[in-house]
Amino acid sequence: MDQILLQILNGLDKGSAYALIALGLTLIFGTLGVVNFAHGALFMIGAFCAVTLQRILNISTVTTDPTKTDFLGNPATIKTPVVETWFGPEMGASIIDWSVPLAILFAIPIMAAVGFIMERGLIKHFYKRPHADQILVTFGLAIVLQEVIKAFYGANPIPTPAPEAFRGSFDFGTYLGYEANAIIYPYWRMVYFAFSAVIIAAVFAFLQFTTFGMVVRAGMADRETVGLLGINIDKRFTIMFAIAACVAGLAGVMYAPINSPNYHMGMDFLVLSFVVVVVGGMGSLPGAVLAGFMLGILEAFASMNQVKAIFPGIDQIIIYLVAIIIILTRPRGLMGRRGVMEE
Amino acid sequence: MSTSNLTRRGLIKNSAIAGAGFAAPTIFTASSAAAYTNEPTGGSVTLGFNVPQSGPYADEGADELRAYELAVEHLNGGGDGGMMNTFSSKELTGNGILGKKVEFVTGDTQTKSDAARASAKSMIEKDGAVMITGGSSSGVAIAVQGLCQEAGVIFMAGLTHSNDTTGKDKKANGFRHFFNGYMSAAALAPVLESLYGSDRNAYHLTADYTWGWTQEESIAAATEAMGWNTVNKVRTPLASTDFSSYIAPVLNSGADVLVLNHYGGNMVNSLTNAVQFGLRDKIVNGKNFEIVVPLYSRLMAKGAGANVKGIHGSTNWHWSLQDEGSKAFVKSFGTKYGFPPSQAAHTVYCQTMLYADAAQRAGTFNPCGIVEALEGYEFDGLGNGKTLYRADDHQCFKDVLVVRGKENPTSEFDLLEVVEVTPTSQVIYEADHPMFAGGALGSCNPGA
Amino acid sequence: MGILEVKNVGKRFGGLQALGDVNLSVAENSVHAIIGPNGAGKSTLLNCLVGKLIPDTGSVMFDGQSVLGRKPFEINQMGISRVFQTPEIFGDLSVLENMLIPCFAKRDGAFHLSAFKNMLDDKEIIDRAQHMLEEMKMADKHGMNAASLSRGDKRRLEIGMCLSQEPRLLLLDEPTAGMARADTNNTIDLLKQISDERDITIAIIEHDMHVVFSLAERITVLAQGTPLVEDTPDNIKGHPKVREAYLGETQDAA
Amino acid sequence: MLKLNKRDTMLFVIVTAMVFLAPFLLNPFPQGSSMAQMFNAGYPDLMQRFVIFGILVIGFNILFGLTGYLSFGHAAFLGIGSYSAVWMFKLLSMNIIPALILSMIVAGIFSLVIGYVSLRRSGIYFSILTLAFAQMSYNLAYSVLGNPSSNYNLTNGETGLQLALNDPRVLDGAAAANGALPVTKLFGLAMRDSYNLNVGGWLFTFNVGYYVAGILMLISFYISIRIFRSPFGMMLRAVKSNQQRMNYTGLNTKPYTLAAFVISGMYAGLAGGLLSSMDPLAGAERMHWTASGEIVIMAILGGVGTLIGPIVGAGFNEYFKNILSKINDGVLHQWLSFLPDGLENFIVGILHYFVGKGWHLTLGLLFMMVIIFLPGGLVEGGQRLAKMFKRKKTDDGSDSNNTPAE
Question: Residue D357 and residue B53: Cβ atoms within 8 Å?
Answer without folding.
Answer: yes
